[in-house]
Design goal:
mainly alpha, 6 helices, DUF350, cell membrane, DUF350 domain-containing protein, transmembrane helix
Length: 149
């Protein structure tokens, strides 16, 4: 009786596990980068505004921005076609592009809608402008993700 994990199945599982680990690490790093970009757009330390001030606007905007980046990372992985090195590079480039697009979208939102993100996160109660910007984040993430595919 041969050990099934010593053959092609074991090799495929090993490669697959390493690929998952590599994409997960890259995805987490991109989410952290996205968090810091959102942090730059808000007054004060974002983690403090969310944890200590319990600001729902900051939490919503951060969550929507990170969800949008997650969509872009997932689409990049999907479109990689199993080529690990090319997929990781594409995920890095598309993820960073998505973060930049999110930042530009936030700046345009400030100008077009006339609702300042910095003002939103100073409000202690959930604001309609934060909901609008959160949906905008998700829409930008979805558009960018579909463009990747």
């Amino acid at each position: 009786m041969t050990n099934a994990l010593a053959g092609p199945l074991g090799e495929a599982l090993g490669r697959g596990s390493l690929a998952i680990l590599a994409y997960a690490i890259l995805g987490v790093l991109l989410l952290i980068a996205g968090f810091y970009v959102v942090d730059m757009a808000t007054p004060g330390r974002l983690s403090k505004v969310i944890q200590h001030d319990r600001n729902p606007n900051a939490a919503l905007l951060t969550a929507s921005g990170l969800a949008a980046i997650g969509l872009i990372v997932a689409a990049s992985i999907w479109s990689s076609g199993g080529a690990l090195q090319e997929g990781l590079l594409a995920t890095l480039v598309f993820g960073l592009t998505g973060i930049v697009v999110q930042a530009l979208g936030t700046l345009l939102f400030d100008r077009v809608a006339g609702i300042k993100v910095r003002d939103l996160v100073r409000e202690p109660s959930l604001q309609p402008g934060a909901v609008l910007l959160a949906v905008t984040h998700l829409a930008i993430g979805l558009i960018t993700a579909v463009a990747v595919i």
